[in-house]
TrEMBL record:
One of its GO terms (cellular component) is plasma membrane. One of its GO terms (molecular function) is ATP binding. It is an enzyme of class 2 (transferase). It is found in: Cell membrane. Its main location: membrane. The keyword Phosphoprotein applies. Keywords: ATP-binding, Cell membrane, Kinase, Membrane, Nucleotide-binding, Phosphoprotein, Transferase, Transmembrane, Transmembrane helix, Two-component regulatory system. The chain holds residues 202 to 457 of 457 of the full protein. It catalyses: ATP + protein L-histidine = ADP + protein N-phospho-L-histidine. The keyword Cell membrane applies. This is histidine kinase.
Length: 256
């Protein structure tokens, strides 16, 4: 739609304006393409669980299920798929608020260690359930910095939740340390790791390394995208390092 190129000659002010308008048109086109990709992904993500729910409820409706166990099994699938939709919708809402830039960071002076401890306490039972040892290694001299406590908690939560999801045995360590410029938060696991080809892509919306595997772990593929939005809104940087079959390390750098 915006791709039509009008030849512009000369370099006077009118020509410069023409070039600017052309550039704007190209940007609009890019925006529209990415919006279409996004809508296609969301529709796809919703359709899969809905297909399950529709299919299994049809079977239950037809009264052809013989045993109570079978009935129970189908109800559980329906329940699980409904939870998946609910999780996806929550993530989408989070993302749209963050992305629209309409979310105002509610900043206050806070100690990151307290946030890390809260995430630790919340997720320790989930780790223990999988036989994973979750431990803390916090900087003693961590200064208070200006952050949106709830948002930062969500970012750290997403990272630790992922580490639990993608670790089958071993350790996860939550670390904080300080250097001249940055307060550094690290989440390190001994999990399944990420291949070098996948590593740059994990930050994209809806990207999941292995669709079938993550399907059973119930991710939406939005977790890391939301982490990046939150950290960048704080003018911070987030990086991932990983070795396949050995473990991953996610690091958030916040300016002091
Ligand atoms: P999801 O909801 O699928 O977990 P995320 O955006 O949080 O989506 O993560 C994107 C993908 O990155 C995941 O599907 C997974 O393949 C990979 N990933 C994220 N964290 C880890 C980790 N700690 N270890 C291994 N793989 C990970």
């Amino acid at each position: 739609k915006y791709k039509q190129k009008i030849p512009i000659s000369g370099d006077d002010e009118v020509a410069q304006l023409g070039h600017s308008i052309q550039l704007l048109g190209e940007q609009l086109q890019e925006f529209e393409d990415s919006r279409n990709d996004f809508l296609a992904s969301v529709s796809h993500e919703l359709r899969t669980p809905l297909t399950y729910i529709k299919g299994y409820s049809d079977i239950l409706n037809k009264d052809i299920v013989k045993t109570r166990e079978e009935q129970q099994e189908y109800l559980q699938i329906i329940n699980k798929e409904a939870s998946r939709i609910s999780l996806l919708v929550n993530d989408l809402l989070d993302m749209s608020k963050l992305q629209a830039g309409q979310f105002v960071l509610n900043k206050q002076q806070a100690n990151v260690n307290l946030i890390i401890k809260k995430v630790f306490t919340t997720l320790k039972p989930a780790a223990a359930e999988k036989g994973i040892i979750l431990s803390l290694d916090l900087a003693e001299d961590s200064p208070e910095i200006e952050i949106d406590v709830l948002r930062m908690e969500q970012a750290i939560f997403n990272l630790v939740e992922n580490s639990i999801k993608y670790t089958n045995e071993g350790h996860i360590t939550l670390r904080s340390h300080v250097n001249n410029e940055f307060l550094i938060i690290e989440v390190q696991d001994t999990g399944i790791g990420i291949s070098p080809e996948d590593l740059p892509k994990i930050w994209s919306r809806f990207y999941r390394v292995d669709k079938s595997r993550t399907r059973s772990t119930g991710g939406s593929g939005l977790g890391l995208y939301v982490v990046k939005l939150i950290v960048e809104a704080h003018n911070g940087v987030v990086r991932a390092n990983s070795t396949e079959n050995s473990g991953s390390e996610f690091t958030i750098y916040l300016k002091i």
